[in-house]
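Take our chain:
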Amino acid sequence: TSVISCFYYIRFVKIMYFDTPKKWILYKPMDREKSLLLAITLFLISFFFLYPSPPFLVSHQMALSLCL
């Protein structure tokens, strides 16, 4: 089975890095609303990654309120 998996992964790497694409993907510019939503989401995720205490405290308080 390791020979089969090795063949599969080598073929996968060959397709990803060495074969030229048959069709190029063109992306349209993003709307203003979508870019604003993406920026807000990125900010919140970064904030909660760097300072995770607020969501933990809120969830802890919610769990305590369910127990009482």
Notes: Residues 58 and 64 are 10 Å apart (CA to CA).
